[in-house]
Write a structure and sequence with these properties.
- The complex is a heterodimer.
- Chain A is of the alpha+beta class.
- Chain A has two domains: 42 residues; 168 residues, Glutaredoxin, CATH 3.40.30.
- Helix content of chain A is 57%, strand content 10%.
- Chain A has a five-stranded mixed sheet with strand order 1-3-2-4-5.
- In chain A, α2 links the parallel β2 and β3.
- In chain A, α3 packs parallel to α5 and α3 runs antiparallel to α6.
- By secondary structure, chain B is mostly helical.
- Chain B has one domain.
- Chain B is 69% helix and 0% strand.
- Chain B is elongated.
- The chains are: A alpha+beta, B mainly alpha.
- At the A-B interface, α1, α2 and α7 of A face α2, α3, α4 and α6 of B.
C-alpha cells in the first residue's frame, strides 16, 4: 500500500518536472526565434538615392495621380499584369496623367530553391536605379522573368542584362555586393505594414485597385483626376 | 479492451499532431520575416507585434512537434497545441468575417494567396478543428505507446 503511494508520488513529480521542462523549452524556442530574426534584421540599410521620399520605391513619370505598384520579379501574376497593363501604364506616363511608383518587394524568396531570387532581383533593380535606368531594367527583368520553383537568374545574368542597357561598373559592383539586400527586406516590411498581402498590388491615388485590367486602371485614374 | 487500444490511439494522435507541427514550423522557419508578414496579414495586431510573434512561432511549433514526437510532457504539449489551434481558428474566422483576401499562412506562404487563388477559410478551419480534436484527445488521455513519458514515469502516465 505504502509502496504504491510512493510510486504514485514519484510519478506525479516526474510528470510535473517534465511539464516544467517542456514549458521552458517552448519559451526558449520563442526567444531564440526572435533573436535570429533580430540578428537577420541588423545591418545597415542603404536607401537608393533615386528612391521616392519615403525610400520605398522608384517613381516613373510626373503626372498628378500617383499609382503605386507592388511587384515581385518572380511573380507570375505580376508578369501577366506587366504584359496586359504595361502599355497602358506607359501611355498614362507619356500623357503626364500619372506618376507610377514601383515598389520591387521580395515576397517569393522561398520559390527560388534557396537563391533568394526575389531579393536579388529587387536589389539589382535598385542598383539600376542608381545608374538612372530603373524603368528600363524593370522592363527587362519582367521580359526575363523566371518561373517559380527555379533558381531564377544568377547574378551574372542580372549584371549582363544591366550592362546591355549601358549600366557600368558601379552597377556590377552593386549587384555583386548585394548592396540593397537589407533595403529590399525593409520595403517588403513596409508593404506588409500598408496591407499588401500579395503581388501585384496596385493603389491608384492611395486606393487599392480591384480591377487590374487596362480598362480598370484607366477608369480608376480618370476618376482620381476628377 | 480500451485499456489496451487507448495507448495505441494515443500514439497515432501524438505522431499525427507532431507531424503537423513539425511541417508547419519547418515550412516557416526558413523565412522568419515572411512569417511575421503572414501574422500581419490578419490585421489583428500592430505590425511590430506581428513581426515578433511571427518570428517566434516557427521554432515554437517545431519544439511542440518534437515534444509530441518524443512523447515528452504529452499533456502539456497537447494543452499548448489546443491553445495555439484555438487562436488560429479564431484568427481565420475573424479574417473570414472581415472579408480579408489572405491565405492562413499556416504552412509558410507568408500570408499571400497564390495568383488567381481565392481564400479557403472554411477548409482551413475544418482542418484546424481536426487537429484540435487530436490535441483534445491527448489532453484527456496523454498516455501513449513508445512515449518518453512512460519511460520517465516508469509506467503508464497518470490520468
Amino acid at each position: 500500500m505504502v509502496r504504491e503511494q510512493l510510486a504514485r508520488e514519484q510519478r506525479r513529480k516526474a510528470t510535473l518536472w517534465t511539464s516544467v521542462i517542456a514549458a521552458a523549452a517552448l519559451l526558449v524556442a520563442g526567444v531564440v526565434g526572435y533573436g535570429i530574426f533580430a540578428a537577420q534584421r541588423s545591418g545597415d540599410v542603404f536607401t537608393p538615392t533615386a528612391a521616392t521620399a519615403d525610400g520605398s520605391g522608384f517613381a516613373v513619370g510626373t503626372g498628378p495621380v500617383t499609382v503605386d505598384v507592388y511587384e515581385d520579379f518572380m511573380c507570375p501574376a505580376c508578369g501577366e499584369f506587366e504584359s496586359t497593363a504595361g502599355a497602358t501604364i506607359a501611355q498614362l506616363v507619356t500623357d503626364k496623367k500619372v506618376t507610377v511608383v514601383y515598389h520591387p518587394i521580395a515576397i517569393l524568396d522561398r520559390f527560388s530553391q534557396g537563391t533568394n531570387y526575389s531579393t536579388r532581383a529587387s536589389g539589382a533593380a535598385a542598383c539600376a536605379a542608381d545608374g538612372g535606368k530603373f524603368a528600363e531594367y524593370h522592363k527587362v527583368l519582367f521580359a526575363n522573368r523566371p518561373e517559380e520553383n527555379t533558381p531564377g537568374l544568377d547574378d551574372t545574368k542580372l549584371i549582363s542584362l544591366g550592362t546591355e542597357l549601358g549600366l557600368g561598373d558601379p552597377f556590377t559592383q552593386c549587384v555583386q555586393d548585394g548592396k540593397y539586400k537589407t533595403w529590399s527586406a525593409q520595403i517588403t516590411d513596409k508593404s506588409s505594414e500598408r496591407g499588401v498581402t500579395g503581388t501585384p498590388t496596385v493603389y491608384v491615388a492611395g486606393t487599392a485597385l480591384k480591377d487590374r485590367s487596362p480598362a480598370g486602371l484607366t477608369t480608376a485614374v480618370e476618376s482620381a483626376v476628377k | 479492451m480500451w485499456d489496451r487500444a487507448g495507448p495505441w490511439a494515443g500514439l497515432v494522435a501524438r505522431l499525427g499532431l507532431a507531424g503537423v507541427w513539425l511541417y508547419a514550423g519547418g515550412t516557416k522557419v526558413g523565412d522568419l520575416a515572411a512569417s511575421g508578414r503572414a501574422v500581419n496579414a490578419y490585421q489583428i495586431m500592430p505590425f511590430g507585434v506581428a513581426q515578433v510573434i511571427g518570428a517566434m512561432l516557427p521554432l515554437v511549433e517545431i519544439v511542440v512537434g518534437l515534444l509530441l514526437l518524443a512523447g515528452l510532457a504529452t499533456r502539456t504539449a497537447a494543452a499548448f497545441s489546443a491553445l495555439l489551434l484555438a487562436v488560429f481558428i479564431v484568427g481565420i474566422a475573424s479574417a473570414w468575417a472581415r472579408g480579408l483576401q489572405i491565405d492562413c499562412g499556416c504552412f509558410g506562404s507568408g500570408g499571400q494567396l497564390a495568383s488567381g487563388e481565392s481564400p479557403t477559410y472554411g477548409w482551413e478551419i475544418a482542418r484546424d478543428i481536426g487537429f484540435l480534436i487530436l490535441a483534445g484527445y491527448l489532453l484527456l488521455r496523454p498516455d501513449s505507446r513508445f512515449s518518453a513519458d512512460r519511460r520517465f514515469t516508469a509506467g503508464p502516465a497518470q490520468r
